[in-house]
Design brief:
Layout: H1 4-9, H2 16-28, H3 38-50, E1 60-67, H4 83-93, H5 97-105, E2 108-115, E3 126-127, H6 145-164, E4 169-175, H7 180-191, H8 195-198, H9 207-224, H10 231-238, H11 241-255, E5 259-262, H12 265-277, E6 285-287, H13 296-303, H14 319-337, H15 341-344
Parallel strand pairs: 1-2, 1-4, 2-3, 4-5, 5-6
Length: 352
């Protein structure tokens, strides 16, 4: 069983030689250099991640981590907490938005019970429960440090299993009523941004609910006093089991030289924690989209990531990440199928 330090230690820098080879190949194609914008960055980032200019990215998976949150007791969500377990069963039945979009993208959906406050049974449910729901962060810690590390390890090991079976692309998805609250708390704890900047409406609360939610997040930070210098401690104090699990997915993808496409605000908070734990993991991450949730654009800026899409989405589940799979496929088709100036008999750009 790998320790957190061992998981982090397995993340290596991108393959610089493969990146340069991909850039040379891109510049030889029948187009002005750089004219395909972010698609070109996807090409060379993929080469750097995998060490191959034209890797096989056929196998893709979206990992949906599900967990509950005691902080829903504070009235911070428009939906009751039992919706978490109900939506888990919807994922397993193939009826959620992420299932529909994953089928279109040719990706499998892996639904993981990492902290649902119920005993669920289904042949396709991946059981990795650490505990039945995170604690109420307004009154105490979400979990212990040992539980936070166990949740990270669960995400890491799941990626390791799928990577061994040939999966090279992972997307982060989640389900947990109330989870924008701990996500905002993690964001604030790691960066010092204000509740006004970080806390949004989540599932659609009204103005009074938003004001209450901001007070709850501020109370959580005051009660738990997490340190920005201790990312694991931040996850334990004010995070959630699915957040820690997704941080493990990101570390696992990086350790196994695979791409990880993050979804919205919650996934990005998990990514920030992962990058603070392991800065080298940053280069393995693709930001799929910027969501409507307050603070997401600021969070992506903190991560130094530029989103591929802006579709005014705020659903979560991994929906935006799965949509970005199509752009990744487009980038890979460019490098594989587009003619070079030489092969097409077309004159290249003149040198000054």
């Amino acid at each position: 069983m790998a320790t957190l330090d061992e998981m982090i230690g397995r993340v290596m820098p991108l393959d610089a030689e493969a990146i340069e080879e991909a850039k040379r190949r891109l510049d030889s194609l029948t187009k002005p250099p750089g004219s395909l914008g972010k698609l070109e960055k996807l090409v060379w980032q993929t080469a750097g991640v995998t060490g191959e200019v034209t890797p096989d990215l056929t196998k893709k998976a979206v990992i949906v981590m599900a967990g509950d949150h005691g902080v829903t007791e504070e009235g911070i969500s428009a939906f009751p907490s039992e919706v978490t377990q109900q939506m888990v069963m919807n994922f397993l039945a193939g009826g959620a938005a992420v299932n529909v979009l994953a089928r279109q993208a040719g990706a499998e959906v892996l639904c993981v019970d990492i902290g649902v406050d119920a005993e669920l049974s289904h042949p396709d449910l991946i059981q990795r429960k650490i505990r039945r729901g995170a604690g109420n962060i307004a009154r105490g810690p979400a979990m212990s440090r040992a539980e936070a590390e166990a949740a990270i390890r669960a995400g890491y090991e799941l990626v390791a299993e799928r990577a061994a079976a040939g999966c090279r692309v992972f997307a982060t998805g989640e389900m947990g009523i109330g989870n924008t609250t701990p996500s905002a708390a993690v964001f604030m704890a790691l960066t010092g941004v204000s509740a006004q900047e970080a806390v949004g409406r989540g599932t659609g609360i009204d103005d009074a609910g938003l004001a209450r939610k901001r007070r709850v997040v501020e109370q959580a930070l005051a009660v738990n006093a997490p340190s920005a210098e201790d990312p694991l401690g931040v996850l334990a104090a004010v995070g959630g089991l699915e957040l820690a699990g997704l941080a493990g997915v990101i570390l696992g993808a990086a350790a196994h030289r695979s791409l990880v496409v993050i979804d919205g605000f919650i996934s990005s908070a998990a990514a920030l924690a992962a990058v603070r734990l392991c800065p080298a993991a940053h280069d393995y991450i693709i930001a799929s989209h910027v969501s409507e949730e307050r603070g997401h654009a600021r969070l992506l800026a903190e991560l130094g990531l530029s989103p591929m899409l802006d579709l005014h989405m705020r659903l979560g589940e991994g929906t935006g990440a799965v949509l970005a799979f199509h752009l990744l496929d487009a980038a890979e088709r460019i490098i594989r199928e587009m003619a070079t100036f030489e092969s097409a008999g077309i004159s290249g750009a003149r040198e000054e």
